[in-house]
Amino acid sequence: MRKTKRILAMAMLCILFFACNSSKRSSEEAVSVENSKPASTTLDNLIAKETDTLQAEVSKTANDQQYLDGQCYFKLKESSKLELPNYNSEKGQIGEYPALSEIISAFGVQEIKQAFPGLKNKTYRMSYDSTKSFESLQKAFNQLDFIDYIEQIPLNK
Fold first, then answer.
1. CB–CB of 101/94 below 8 Å?
2. Given this model, what pLDDT does residue 32 score?
3. What pLDDT does residue 45 have?
4. First and final CA of the chain: distance in angstroms?
5. Model pTM greater than 0.85?
6. Alpha-carbon distance 17 to 10, whole Å?
7. Distance between CA atoms of 56 and 52, rounded to whole angstroms?
8. 74 near 134, Cβ under 8 Å?
9. Long-range contacts of 46-55 (CB under 8 A, 24+ apart)
10. What domain range includes position 8?
């Protein structure tokens, strides 16, 4: 979602940039452009150049991804008595997760397991449908009174 907004904002800036620059162009440049190429061809070339720039930025944004898609950590509050067994969607264990069954279904959760099995803590790692928005998942988790936090898993670069 943030990537889409960023790309749209960049496109709007490019449009504004071209609008400002084309009105500031000197009459000498305008005559030169008019004599050498039709205005529509020049505009097409400018649009093509900016499209290439935007595509490069989209590619760069995808490569600058900072988090693993479809994976997150969540932690139960220390005061919570809830203990979660490992969950795997292929084994059909949704009945063992009555507190999270709606979220498991809505976000296509594939797996829940302890994030750090050697430690005695209540942090879990969850894999979910990567086409689902993390922000929506976070909002759903934050409505549960036994959740301390939920966060995306950073990429190790």
1. yes
2. 45
3. 62
4. 23
5. no
6. 10
7. 6
8. no
9. 46/18, 50/14, 50/18, 53/14, 54/7, 54/10, 54/11, 54/14
10. 2-63
